[in-house]
Amino acid sequence: MSTLVELNDICVHFDQRKVLDNVSLRLNRGEITTLIGPNGAGKSTLVKVLLGLQRQFSGQVTKTKGLKIGYVPQKLKLNDSLPLNVDRFLQLAGKYSRQEINDALKLVGAEHLAHSNMHSLSGGETQRVLLSRALLQRPDLLVLDEPAQGVDVQGQIDLYDLIDTIRHRFNCAVFMVSHDLHLVMAKTDDVVCLHHHICCSGAPADIAQHPSYIALFGHNHQQSLAFYHHQHDHHHHDLAGQPVTGEATDCSHHSHGHHHD
After folding, report:
1. Residue 146 in 3-state DSSP?
2. Residues whose CB is less than 8 angstroms from the CB of residue 231 and which lie 6 or more positions away in sequence, other chains included
3. What is residue 35's three-state secondary structure?
4. Diameter of the chain by CA atoms?
5. How far is Cα 224 from Cα 146, in angstroms, rounded to an integer?
6. Which residues contact 145 (CB under 8 A, 6 or more apart)?
7. DSSP 124
8. HSE-CB of 210 using CA atoms within 13 angstroms
9. How far is the C-alpha of 127 from the C-alpha of 156, rounded, in Å?
10. 141-145 vs 173-178, strand pairing mode
11. Kind and range of the H or E run holding 5
12. Mapping DSSP to helix (H, G, I), strand (E, B) and coil, where does residue 48 land?
């Protein structure tokens, strides 16, 4: 299995306060890893360390040589008074050809939005456009910070399906931050539960039963997980409209050698 990024014993302090405490994890090509944890748990700080935006830390970050990272931020800050359509927004991402921009929009099912105003997109449409921007450079690692915020439930399901499809198509690693697990569950290989340190990590079904997870998120999450899996198996379709069966809930075939208790 090819490891693209390895974090070892990452510690970050802000004003004597430990935000990250000996965090270690591995991101492997072709795998989706979801980072969960309550607000203020250090999730965004960990993303910044991973992206090289947080310089003050102890520990070690090892990245594969020439690693290309595509990043989908949590919030897009645009100047409301400037007219900006999707096509122009993507042109600002770098020197990409018309064909490359069209292909990126097509990949995320957003080619019809090319001439739409960025300011008038829905939450789900904005996420697709941001995803297409991240895909322009054909990343080895795709990092998404709370991609489902401001997106309705069906939109979230579609978004996670899309991310899953992209992972297979590009054989990239995906590192996704979420404060809520039940919708992500069906599509993720590995879950890392963070509360300044790693409370637990492993396959989604195992994490849902883990005492640390239950202590942080409560039992109601387990009920919604069961409900989601039930719903998911009943009406699930992939991007081409084909029903997806079986693999949505079967996470048991992945082996994980890096559990932290």
Report:
1. coil
2. none
3. strand
4. 53
5. 19
6. 43, 44, 47, 71, 72, 73, 74, 177
7. H
8. 22
9. 10
10. parallel
11. strand 3-14
12. helix
CA atoms within 13 A on the CB side of 208: 22
The amino acid sitting at 67 is L
CA distances from 100 to 59, 169, 208 (A): 38, 16, 40
- Residue 209: how many CB atoms within 10 A of its CB? 10
> Which residue, among 193, 213, 210, has the nearest Cα to 201 in the 3D structure?
193
Tokens of 82: 């400037």
* Contact indicator for 227, 234 with CB cutoff of 8 Å: no
Q: Count CB-CB contacts under 10 A for residue 16.
A: 5
User: How far is the C-alpha of 32 from the C-alpha of 17, rounded, in Å?
Assistant: 30
- Full-model pTM: 0.81
38-93 pLDDT tens trace: 888 999 999 999 999 988 999 999 999 999 999 998 878 888 788 899 999 999 99
* Residue in the block written with tokens 């829905």: 122
Q: Which amino acid is at 204?
A: P
Q: Identify whether the C-beta of residue 185 lies closer than 8 Å to the C-beta of residue 230.
A: no
What letter does residue 83 receive in the DSSP assignment? -
Could you give the residue ranges of the DSSP H alpha helices within the chain?
43-51, 86-91, 98-107, 123-135, 153-170, 204-209, 211-217, 220-235
Report whether 23 contacts 46 (CB < 8 A). yes
Our CA dihedral for 156, 1, 42, 216, rounded to 10 degrees, sits at: 70
Residues 126-158: pLDDT tens digits? 999 999 999 998 999 999 998 888 888 888 888
